[in-house]
Design goal:
By secondary structure, the protein is mainly beta. 0% of the residues lie in helices and 50% in strands. The strands form 2 sheets. Strands 2, 4, 5, 6, 9, 10 and 11 form a 7-stranded mixed β-sheet that branches. The chain starts with a strand and ends with a strand.
């Protein structure tokens, strides 16, 4: 079955860290572009981070630059989003997206609150 499955979300205090994982099955991430999006309640889905290819360049939304890092482990067929110095405004459902086939994961909730 071709799918993306996110994990690693949860409740964290402001200033804390989380690492999200996005595991692909049924296809190989390889050197294809992958990204993380997020959607907060009442807001549109927005691009958070982009990995253009295996070992290639990365792009980030201004709101997360210097705090979030996208990476990939091709042998594990997994993409990660390391999030640090989290803020309440980072609260959202986070989704990974594969550009090669237009596939979305089911999302994982991240809540930043004291």
């Amino acid at each position: 079955q071709v799918q993306l499955v996110e994990s690693g979300g949860g409740l964290v205090q402001p200033g804390g860290s989380l690492r999200l994982s996005c595991a692909a099955s049924g296809f190989t991430l390889g050197s294809y572009a992958m990204s993380w999006y997020r959607q907060a309640p009442g807001k549109e889905r927005e691009l958070v981070a982009l990995s253009t290819s295996a070992g290639g360049s990365t792009r980030y939304a201004d709101s997360v630059k210097g705090r979030f890092t996208i990476s990939r482990d091709n042998p594990k067929n997994t993409v990660y989003l390391q999030m640090s110095s989290l803020k309440p405004e980072d609260t959202a459902v986070y989704y990974c997206y594969s550009f090669v086939n237009g596939l979305w994961g089911q999302g994982t909730q991240v809540t930043v609150s004291s």
